[in-house]
Design brief:
Blueprint (H helix, E strand, L loop, with lengths): L1 H20 L4 H35 L1
Helix pairs in contact: 1-2
Length: about 60
């Protein structure tokens, strides 16, 4: 489970870096970076929620 989270996190960073280094004008580049940062924080929140639920399930069962 944790390896999957780490792999998806690395893929998100690589994708964000790839889009950030492409030849865009500045507004498009900032918009793409901003949306990828929002997606990253959403992804981290979902992963944290899953980890907390997993820990709670393991403790109480």
């Amino acid at each position: 489970m944790l390896k999957f989270h780490l792999a998806a996190l690395v893929a998100t960073f690589v994708t964000g870096y790839f889009y950030g280094s492409m030849e865009f004008d500045m507004e498009t580049r900032y918009a793409v970076l901003f949306s990828s940062v929002i997606g990253l924080f959403t992804f981290l929140g979902v992963c944290t929620a899953f980890v907390i639920i997993e820990v709670i399930v393991r403790v109480f069962t």
